[in-house]
Amino acid sequence: MYKGTLSKRVEVLIHIIYWFLMGYFTFVKNLVLAKNYLPDLFLSTYMIVFVLTFYFHYFVVMKLVFKSFQWKRFFAGVLVSYFFFTFLRWLFEQVITKIVFDKINYNNPTFFSYMEDNLHYSSMSIILSSLLWFVIYFIRLLEYNQIILEENKNTEIKFLKAQINPHFIFNTLNNIYSMVYFESDKSLTAIEKLSQIMRFTTYESQKEKIKLTDEIDYIKAYIELEQLRHQESTCIDFKVETENLSEEIPPYILSPLVENALKHGITSNVKPIVIALKLEDKKLNFKVINDIAVQKKDKLGGIGLDNLKKRLEIHYPQKHQIKLTNQNNQFTAELEIDLK
């Protein structure tokens, strides 16, 4: 059905196990209990017809039926397999055995009695063939659905990243434009920082996970760009408490909270934006606190934060908690992630 689902080798193995079990129970029931250790002629021919019908129904009928499934196609396929079984049994037990062993299984049967008798004998072959086909089909279907879910998940992550990157770059270019417009000597430094961030965006962001230290460096570069726009350079209080900077996290999982604070918060020496990162025993806590500028109505959302929530649901389902509170003109964003 799809590359990566149940392979032909595994399918063959399932068939081998199936026939081993069938042979074992047939031997116990028909041979041991009946004390007849060797199958007679017509039991042998029946087994041959059984196997041939089984695989005719498995490889031909079921494949054609499920190209475009309809119940009438399914029952028509069962009817075809029944006629196939009946014809083979007549060929083996009424023609071939007559020529080779001078024996026949049915002595002058009527057409209807012969068809009715084979309706019973053919049913087991057709039913068991259908059941085995359904089992393998649904195993493949489950695996295929899992692959589709995984691909959709990866596609959604890439889409969300694509939304984050232009959003950040748009804001940064606006900042640099202002610097250049007012002939600020900080514009060249800002361009250098933007170049550093673009390298991260181009290479690191394409990875599924990056080291925590890379995300921190990215945040610091982002902060420095923002600080270049302000007269005071100590308006950010960034604290990191961890002994393991090599712990891996998805890119852009922390920075949207910082971006939101810098965009909507007051930045000054008197009221600095507080950023605190703590990692202990695989539990990551990231908190950003900022006073809200009166002229900037802080939102508990936006493209960056909405995307962050979606990506957290994808990467850390049931293993994260994000709290966004707005009290007394102070906005607090706290993210907790269980990295285990």
UniProtKB/TrEMBL annotation:
GO terms for cellular component: membrane. Keywords: Membrane, Transmembrane, Transmembrane helix. InterPro entries: Bact_2-comp_sensor_kinase, HATPase_C_sf, Sig_transdc_His_kin_internal. It holds the Pfam family His_kinase. The chain crosses the membrane at residues 12-29, 41-62, 74-92, 119-139. GO terms for molecular function: phosphorelay sensor kinase activity. Residues 156-232 form the Signal transduction histidine kinase internal region domain. It comes from the Bacteria. This is Signal transduction histidine kinase internal region domain-containing protein.
